[in-house]
Amino acid sequence: MGQTAWARLRPEPVDRGHVKKIEAIIKPFKLDEVKEALHEVGVSGITVTEAKGFGRQKGHTELYRGAEYVVDFLPKVKLEVVVSDAQAEAVVEAIAAAAQTGRIGDGKIFVTPIESALRIRTGEKDDAAI
Prior knowledge:
CATH architecture: 2-Layer Sandwich
CATH class: Alpha Beta
Order of helices and strands: HEHEEEEHE
Oligomer: single chain
Helix content: 10-25%
Number of domains: 1
Radius of gyration: 21 Å
Mean pLDDT: 85
Structural class: alpha+beta
Number of strands: 6
Strand order of the largest sheet: 2-5-1-6
Strand content: 25-35%
Low-confidence stretches: 10-15
Shape: elongated
Number of helices: 3
């Protein structure tokens, strides 16, 4: 079977709106600044979750009533934003600039492709759903 015959047998790819999920783990006191920065770049929705964790700083030692103890998990905030591919870079830059303190534990940003998005109320899909 020649390449042209094979091409005829394959279904046409569906051209869907490309969407990215951006997850950011930041210091809790930076939440308001990040929220404002996201608003300025046109983000209309955000999910915020309180989280605990550690990275390279591996927690710290505190003193309570004369007893020393190790705090392994530090308070963090996890943000989740779903945006179009065209917006993704600006959103990442806005989060990074607003969340940065220059100190250890500023956080991380993860960007992943979203296969599909659906607005439950209207049935809109992908780009239209966000």
